[in-house]
Design brief:
- There is one protein chain.
- By secondary structure, this protein is α/β, with parallel strands linked by helices.
- It is built from seven helices and twelve strands.
- The strands form two sheets. Strands 3-2-1-4-6-12-10-7-8-9 form a ten-stranded mixed beta sheet, sandwiched between helices.
- Strand 7, helix 5 (162-171) and strand 8 form a beta-alpha-beta unit.
- The longest helix is centred in the first third of the chain and has 17 residues, at 50-66.
- The protein is globular.
Amino acid sequence: MNHILVPIGESTNAENTLQYAIDFAQAMDAKVFVFRAFKVLSKAGTILNVDQIVGRETTSHVKEVLGSVDLKGVDVSVISAKGNVIDSINSIDKELGIDLIILGPRSNSIKEEMFLGNTSGSIVKQTDISVLVVPEGYAFQPIKKVLTAIKSGVIKRKEVLNPLETILEVFGAKMRLLQVKTPNFLEEDLEFHSELAAITSAYKSSENATLFQGVLEHLNANNPDMICVFRRKRGFFKKLWEQNSIKKIDFESRLPLLVLKGTE
């Protein structure tokens, strides 16, 4: 894992998210790119260099957040881009190659009942880069136990597992696999990708209405340091992601949540 992207918004939790990312990157020996996109609405009579002014203010805000954290010798760069957040992230990934995005659940000051805000939710939903969602106020700690929740053991591309494999290797962590059999469970879901099986230390199956309910049922028994799920067309967050934002009543994680992408 070489490059980690950290989108920064207006959230008061931005400093905490960045500090977690830096601590995580230090363990991974990775480089951090702190990123913020900005938009400029065109209005008649506006000054010609408004883009440059807003761009400078955006960079200034990011550097202010950067100045409030302990860099711990990690290589950190600042990136600001004009335009859509998703398009900007895709462009950065194309140019630099991003291995993981680390973000807070709410990039802006929004209602307390939301787990994922619109921007954070859209990044998780619309990019093909694995995302680590860090709960508000959560302090970094070495990862020793990971609970990976799945419906299906079928994985089409083995590189999807790379972030999880790296985390397990670097921290010497153990991964417990929880397979939740929901009402739409298929027999083919019992087939397991060989590399997923290889990194599994323990396995348990459960019957629940949703994957989220399965995670809640087994969370305390496993006491993990991280939860891992896969983003699938037929799977976790499918109904939740009809919109980008997610309410806490529908889903919430109080532990770092690793969302692996591109399994189908």
